Amino acid sequence: MKITYENNNIEVQEGLTIKEALKEQIEKSKIKDIIAARFNNTIESLNLPITHGGEIEFINREDKDGRIIYIRGLLFVMCKAFSEVYPEALLTVNYQLSNAMFGTIDNMEVTEEMVAKVKLKMIEIIEKDLPITKVIMTQKEAEEFYKKEETMKGKLQTAIDKDKVSLYYCEDYYNYFYGTMPISTGFAKIFDFVKYRDGFLVKYPSKAEPNCLQETKESLKLISAMDEYVEINKLMRINTVNRLNRKIREENGIKELILFSEALHEKKIAEIARKIKEHGNVRMVLIAGPSSSGKTTFAGKLGMSLKVNGIKPVTISVDNYFVEREETPKDENGNYDFECIEALDLKLFNSQLVDLLAGKEVNLPTFNFTTGKKEYRGNTLKLEEDEILVIEGIHCMNDKLTNLIPKENKFKVYISDLTVLNIDYYNRISTTDTRLIRRIVRDYNFRNYTAEHTLKTWYSVNRGEQKNIFPYQEEADCMFNSSIVYELAVLKKYAMPLLEEIPESSREYSEARRLIVLLKYFETMPSEMIPNNSLLREFIGGSIFED
């Protein structure tokens, strides 16, 4: 076989694994702590037998995909350690907090002694550098295996259209994690395992500093918002994809899912509107959240709820307050940085806000994105006594945006799709993945962008969120979780065909395949019954809040 590595053609023997065939290249590589490979734009294990030619590059935890593999492998090691020290423990990996994964145990109290014993066992397993082997079974073999073992580990694979079912083994321990795994336990050079609240944290390096552990930031408001939905999902008995799929297949199951989810959103929005009313001095509601959180629908629904409380919302678009194009700051690559807060005319914005709150009439600008200049077209505004401003934008949690407005006059709402549904008890669904799938569908439906284009730009979008949104989320007076427990079951039929169009030659192919595998685990849910005021309509179309 001919393999291209760093623009060099290498002859390798067919059937050898990547690790065996490219041993010399791995040893001499400038990339340290190699954890996997990108082979023909697909993320693969170093144990993959080479059966055809192609282009290959190595990845480690500094790579986005390598980091995911690192975290996945670390959770596998943790589960193995628990199986040896506390085999009766029923673990659940709940959600991500900063650079750590938060987990709980359903049938045991998590103590400092327990955590210390498990951490010690994890260190022992890592130091032994034990092989992690992928065992592949046919569907028939898997059926026999699950009859004999009576376990749920990886069983969801048998419920979908999949020729092969696989499990990862390390010594006698087995489990399944949905994606490529490290080839041995020695990869986990940097980690920590600590008690946290009523559970534990598995800590790992950040994207920014991949070679050390950072202090875990306390995000109490975010945790509270996620915990609330964890409890609600448990009450509904829909905390895993398997249980969601069973509910979808039930008679009237889809109807119940939709009614419950919509009622939950309406209840939370009504609570926020009531808090704004009770606050008394609020003259301005500021809404911020990452991409595809559902801000447009949320703002529309909140506006209606405020009207019910006798408050009339008046919206102002921050996008009309950009500085003149030639004054726009540039990023490290010399391109205009429209996402930094300095790209906004903060002086003008604040002066007009002060005038509006003082009861004065102001002449609002309209930004011409073609000429890169503000224009004044006679669009004036004066706030009445029963009116408040509603402003939505990525910088709305940052006080620098509204620095001249007293704190008591502002009410900040942070909105995000904080997914707490798990694939199973060991495999969580990333909140970022859910937002990405929402955006893929919305970009195609309303912006005529392909899934490939959305995936190409997602890194830049996410980088802007890391810089401009996430650091300020705890500044919110209130958080709204826009997640819908069944949303991926609905988005599946829209997103899958778009992702499948991405060719193998594309750099985005591996990410597309990863998302396709995720979506395959969901029973397809029809969208016809979803009401036109549902937040989900913002992405699939038919929303009453569309312009």
Structure description:
- With 547 residues, this protein is of the alpha/beta class.
- It has 4 domains: 2-60, Beta-grasp domain (Ubiquitin-like (UB roll), Roll); 65-219, Threonyl-trna Synthetase, Chain A, domain 2 (Threonyl-tRNA Synthetase, Chain A, domain 2); 221-311 and 387-540, no CATH class; 312-385, no CATH class.
- The chain is 37% helix and 18% strand.
- It contains 15 helices and 21 strands.
- It has helices at 18-21, 23-28, 64-85, 112-128, 139-149, 220-236, 241-249, 253-279, 295-308, 346-357, 431-447, 451-468, 487-500, 509-520, 537-540, and strands at residues 2-5, 8-11, 36-39, 42-44, 54-59, 91-97, 100-105, 133-138, 164-170, 173-175, 192-196, 199-203, 284-288, 312-317, 362-363, 366-368, 373-375, 380-381, 387-392, 410-416, 478-481.
- A 5-stranded mixed beta sheet has the order 2-1-5-3-4.
- β1 and β2 (8-11) form a beta hairpin.
- The protein is globular.
- The termini are far apart.
- The mean pLDDT is 93.
